[in-house]
């Protein structure tokens, strides 16, 4: 066997490493306690004592000598606990002058800027023509749906307002077109029909006879019905007229009288062509001693057409002959009558 030489490194035991660690820890504590303060003069430390033989030999360090050093470092880290207290962010400091100027608003109050902005927005919406058109379009669409489902709702929706008038007839083909026309022109209007007859011939002939029959209907309405004396009245009277030689046409005279404002307006519906043979038949059926012959014929054109062509009917002959019903013709004429009447009314009354 080979003998061990003096150059072979010593093996450090665990106990020796722990003892060395304790000594190093005591030296560090001693050095901290002897550190000079501001009031005490610095003291001179003594020379350190020589290290043990196993620590002084650094020429050749075996692999096993690394273990005590790692153990000492880990033990020191485990004995020392470092606690870091989180520092809250500093609140912004406000000067006293700024604090006095800061606005204090109650919970129920709104800032002036928000109120002014809301007012400007509503003002813009109220004055915007595009928004108004959209609103009117939506309103008219909803009203169209309602009146289509229930036609009787039209009178309820558009009734009221400043315009209140009576019609000298209880027939729907006269009252409905007048109501629709005035409600379209004025927006809201109350139109009521009353049965009234004229004292002219059954079939008036000529413009003068048509206007005379409309006036007599208004006079008889006020005598028969208990209505206000200043109530506006619209009278409708149909007649025939020979505009050209052997060219006969049926028309209607619309007369409006407003006693409260002293307004009187007349207009006529579009003419509907009548075949000459129907007029000749009505003349033949009128007696020569007919007391109202000065104003027209004793038999209406509708009765003659109904007798000649029973499939047409007494009330629909205008639609069959011209393609336009009498109700539609009266609606256009009544719309023109309402527009002229609106122009003659005082501005304060219309607005």
Provide structural commentary.
By secondary structure, the protein is of the alpha/beta class. The protein has a domain of 216 residues: Alpha-Beta Complex (Maf protein), CATH 3.90.950. The protein is built from 14 helices and eight strands. The strands form two sheets. Strands 1, 2, 4, 5, 6 and 7 form a six-stranded mixed β-sheet that branches. It has a two-stranded antiparallel ribbon with strand order 3-8. α8 runs parallel beside α13. The longest helix is centred in the middle third of the chain and has 21 residues. The protein starts with 13 loop residues before the first helix and ends with a helix. The N terminus is likely disordered. GO terms for molecular function: protein kinase A regulatory subunit binding. One of its GO terms (cellular component) is Golgi apparatus.
How far apart are the termini?
Answer: 134 Å
- Average pLDDT level: 76
Radius of gyration: 57 Å
- Percent range of helical residues: 40-55%
CATH class annotation of the domain at 135-350: Alpha Beta
Helix/strand order, N-terminal first: HHHHHHHEHEEHEEEEHEHHHH
Number of strands: 8
Name the poorly predicted regions.
1-6, 58-85, 96-105
**Largest sheet, strands/sense/barrel:** 6 strands, mixed
Beta-strand proportion: 5-15%
* Fold-level CATH name of the domain at 135-350: Maf protein
Given the structure, what is the number of helices? 14
Q: SS-based structural class?
A: alpha/beta
The backbone outline, from C-alpha atoms, is: rod-shaped
Tell me the CATH architecture of the domain at 135-350.
Alpha-Beta Complex
């Amino acid at each position: 066997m080979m003998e061990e030489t003096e150059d072979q490194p010593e093996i450090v035991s665990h106990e020796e490493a722990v003892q060395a660690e304790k000594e190093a820890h005591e030296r560090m504590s001693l050095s901290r306690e002897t550190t000079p303060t501001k009031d005490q003069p610095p003291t001179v430390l003594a020379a350190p004592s020589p290290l043990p033989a196993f620590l002084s030999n650094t020429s050749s360090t075996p692999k096993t000598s690394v273990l005590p050093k790692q153990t000492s470092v880990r033990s020191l880290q485990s004995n020392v606990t470092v606690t870091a207290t989180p520092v809250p962010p500093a609140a912004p400091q406000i000067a006293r002058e700024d604090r006095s100027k800061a606005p204090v608003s109650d919970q129920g109050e709104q800032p002036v800027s928000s109120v002014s902005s809301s007012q400007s927005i509503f003002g813009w919406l109220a004055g915007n023509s595009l928004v108004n058109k959209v609103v009117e379009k939506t309103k008219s669409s909803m009203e169209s749906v309602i009146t289509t489902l229930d036609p009787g709702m039209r009178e309820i929706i558009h009734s009221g307002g400043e315009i209140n008038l009576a019609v000298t007839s209880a027939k729907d083909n006269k009252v409905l077109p007048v109501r629709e026309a005035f409600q379209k022109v004025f927006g809201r209007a109350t139109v009521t029909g009353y049965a009234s007859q004229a004292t002219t011939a059954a079939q008036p002939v000529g413009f003068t006879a048509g206007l005379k029959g409309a006036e007599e209907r208004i006079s008889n309405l006020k005598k028969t019905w208990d209505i206000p004396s200043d109530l506006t009245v619209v009278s409708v009277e149909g007649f025939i007229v020979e505009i050209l030689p052997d060219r006969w046409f049926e028309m209607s005279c619309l007369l409006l009288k407003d006693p409260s404002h002293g307004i009187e307006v007349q207009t006529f519906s579009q003419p509907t062509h009548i075949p000459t043979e129907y007029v000749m038949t009505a003349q033949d059926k009128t007696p020569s001693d007919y007391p109202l012959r000065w104003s027209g014929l004793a038999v209406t054109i509708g009765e003659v057409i109904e007798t000649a062509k029973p499939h047409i009917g007494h009330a629909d002959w205008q639609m069959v002959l011209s393609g336009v019903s009498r109700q539609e013709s009266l609606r256009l004429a009544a719309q023109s009558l309402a527009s002229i009447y609106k122009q003659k009314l005082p501005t304060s009354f219309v607005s």
